[in-house]
Amino acid sequence: MEELLFQNPWWENKKNIENDVNINKLKKNKYIYKPQLFKPADLRKDAVYTLRGARQVGKTTLVKLIIKDLLGKNITPRYIFYYSMNLVKNDKEMFEIFVSWYQTVKESSNRKYVFFDEATFVKDWEKSIKHIVDIFGLKNMTFILTGSSAIDLRRGSERLPGRRGVANPDKVLLPLSFREFCNLTGLKINIDLADITNINLISKKLPELKIYFNELSLYLDKYLICGGFLEQINSYYKNNSISRETVERYISVIFSEIEKINKSRVISKNVFFAIMDSLSSTISWNKLAKKSGNISTNTLIDYIMVFLDSFTTYYLEHFDKNKLRGNPAKEKKLYFFDPFYYYIISTIINLSYEKIKKSTLIESLVGAQLIRSFEQDIYQGFSNIEKIFYWKSVKGKEIDFIISKDKKSIIPIEVKYQNIISPIDYITIKKAFKKGIVVSKNIFFSERDVVIIPACCFLYLI
Description:
Blueprint: H1 2-7, H2 21-27, E1 47-52, H3 59-72, E2 80-84, H4 91-102, E3 112-117, H5 125-136, E4 141-147, H6 150-158, E5 170-172, H7 178-185, H8 199-226, H9 230-239, H10 244-260, H11 265-277, H12 285-291, H13 297-309, E6 313-316, E7 318-320, E8 325-327, E9 333-336, H14 339-348, H15 358-374, E10 388-392, E11 398-406, E12 409-416, H16 427-433, E13 436-440, E14 445-446, E15 450-454, H17 455-461
Parallel strand pairs: 1-4, 1-5, 2-3, 3-4, 12-13, 13-15
Antiparallel strand pairs: 6-9, 7-8, 10-11, 11-12, 14-15
Helix pairs in contact: 4-5, 8-17, 10-14, 11-14, 12-13
């Protein structure tokens, strides 16, 4: 019981939530962002929710903010149960922890809230949840389970058929997008675009976007350094740089995740190097395995899946124009999801961050933003990209991104982050798809079927 009180200090006095380490850290930040993943109505439902996302992205902080809001609504503190699962050994211990709390509140018919943080640390966690729901039911109970591994939460939640309580119970917390970053740090532009794939609509917005181009360019340069992680955003704006201590902590977090699932630090570094060395180029799993120290292809894929399920890396398949889907047999294109990962990974593999081309970072960022906008199931990790692809002709002509929403809506996007763009730079788009979008460095232009828009403006519109 002592441990339960330690993790739930608001039971003694609800004002104790103000002394929580995560809440205190927020108070020291210049910029505070609270994602609206859980609406008040969600918390009034009998449900088992999962909250997934990369380590250090703010899942625990979001949970503590939800608890703070509940306490502010005069929910009886004892009915709010939080437990960090970092040191819990197995599903049996997890179940016993729940029961030791539930015995103290079971007589009440009021709604109860259960927050199991880092549930994926617990082996067979889903067995415990299944047992809880089967014995005690879900009536007037709201669960939120967090985890950094999409695959662990996905496999576990799939083993709870009929025990989740609601449709679409799975949420994902991603680093801030460029638009969210701008809005948070001081640049909010009243420009919305209902459909980023509508070339005519984009063309009509170009004159207005030109007004904000210089400001957006400055903000994009900052975003490329600190990315969408709130801690790094605050650190950068406070010190005008990312501290070595911060980078080392994130490196430690990445490797702790890797070693937790019995993966090799050395092999991981080799795979990171191979990905970095292949950025924006197409490559087969076999070639990537050779670049990663001549490991087997199966081992390479196993490591890639770990990075995909931890929301660190994403890859795109080649687009089959006839079947309107990806071709898994062909080469892939791999990127890191958030700009800050490039800073971290370059440190891990002893590569000077300055050697990474800005055009490559922009291309990677465009792909990540498209995934945010068009992929429906990214809570499962980045191993299920079904609407964003790249395309290459038999003659080797390539288009960076294809958005395939349906048969009538296929939009190619080519990133040309350079000072001069001529018609030859988008001839492949016109020949292969008749229309498309070119993401430029600083050029605004439109004609009947092609629009050219600077990266900072395009990324803000998404």
